[in-house]
Amino acid sequence: MTVSSIEVGPNRYRESFGRYFEDFTVGDVYEHRPGRTITEADNTWFTLLTMNTHPLHFDHAYAAKSEFGKPLVVSSLTVSILLGMSVTDISQKAIANLGWENIRMTAPVFHGDTLYGESEVLEKRESKSRPTQGIVTVKSLAKNQDGVVVCEFVRKVLVPKRGHAVDD
User: Fold this and answer.
1) Which residues of the chain have pLDDT under 50?
2) Dihedral of CA 66/70/71/76: which sign?
């Protein structure tokens, strides 16, 4: 995560987070910290908020009869946590998320698992229609506390060039 300070007045500075288009280098990998332990309450609230009524996520008796033997964390919560973990490194200065591709859930996530995220810069190019911006493509993945990859996706983000961010 790139953290800098902007002088906003005499002896007064404001923290600035995130990366400009120029700060991304293809091949760089950013490890997103801190990790996040997912609780049963997180999972229950998320299923209620999103109206996901599959009992595998909140009915212990039902889940006990499944191949997993216990409730699963709803996959969209896992994706959301990984996305959130990547914001400070990838999209803190972004103008827009342009899309997600190849979202994959590669292993189950359970209450009590701790997720750690990382993102690799796959590609970057200047915008053809917006000369003060560029498009950065990253592959993000989440690993659990045992190092097992549980989720991955590719994301494209529209990022300002230096001197053209909202907080510049």
Assistant:
1) 1
2) negative
